[in-house]
Amino acid sequence: MNTQTIRVGLVGAGNNTRIRHIPGLRALPGVELVSVANRTRESGERVAREFGIGRVHEHWRDVVGADDVDAVCIGTWPYLHREITVAALEHGKHVLCEARMAMNAAEGRQMLAASRRAPHLVAQLVPAPHTLEVDSTIARLLAEGYVGEVLAVELGAAPGRFLEREAPLHWRQDITLSGFNILNMGIWYEAMMRWLGPARRVMAMTKVAVPRRRDAQGAWHEVRVPDHVDILADLRSGAVGHLRFSAVTALAPASEVWIFGSDGTLRLEADARRLWGARRGEPALREIPIPAEQRVGWRVEEEFVKAIRGQEKVSRTTFADGVLYMEFTEAVARSAASGQAVEVADL
After folding, report:
1. Which of 29, 73, 84, 206 makes an SS bond possible with 229, Cβ 3.0 to 4.6 Å?
2. Edge-to-edge strands of the sheet including 228-235?
3. pTM here?
4. Is 220 buried (19+), middle (13-18) or exposed (0-12) by CB count in 10 A?
5. Radius of gyration over every alpha carbon of the chain, rounded to an integer in angstroms
6. Closest Cα to residue 254, out of 323, 157, 123?
């Protein structure tokens, strides 16, 4: 695959696929987008016309089974991720799968098992993008002992908007499409793991603020995906965490993370991608410059293609890391349902 053209089939061409994956893949030399299957043939044809994709299929199995497809980019909602991923790997295709790995941890483990049965194929998840520019700096500072022993983590992530009670049901609020995934909890936990490692145990409380919503056709649905979740987490590193994800905390501060240690404090302004810190003896936080060469940012499609060509290994994000965030996601759901602390399963 070092010199051969990599032929990619698309399954699902939603917003992220059209904005990120298609332009990212088209920009790489030796990559050809050969086919697409979307939710309907009509929507697939619109995507094909817009991006010059030669073939439109009515069903994703036709993309996965085609002899002229080397790799599959999966941009569907989570309810199809496991089925398409396993089928693609069994057909000898490399896989780039959209984030929110699966509906639950069991599906994530099945995807990981399928990838391990085909170690010659690349299996990559789209990474949590919002901290990519600051990840290496945070990880370096922690490794160098900037804060000393990490004692506690505070994370708050919210859009800062008022609840929209009359808005139609979004797919993220439909448990049959999104599974146990809640708001942006999974991508934030994935980012946290890059700096601090995984959690050992969680205690969660959730709230569904609008228990019923209409779908686009006007039919009523029970909403079982929370609009707000508070989590207490015991990290394997020994630190404790308080994590809040919410769609109801209007006018709240912008999303941020505080890392408190025995000898220092770090604060991440997530939207601004700015990092602040102070060590023992300093009177206040100061901004920590992040060199331009360390602000790596988005390179998902490049990493996928280079991994196929044997030029690098996938780091953002592996299926193993995806299973870890799905284990956390499921533990949060089980804790909220039971009112008890729940152990987070390991690989």
Report:
1. 206
2. 286-287, 274-279, 264-269, 256-261, 150-157, 240-246, 228-235, 199-207, 342-343
3. 0.94
4. exposed
5. 21
6. 157
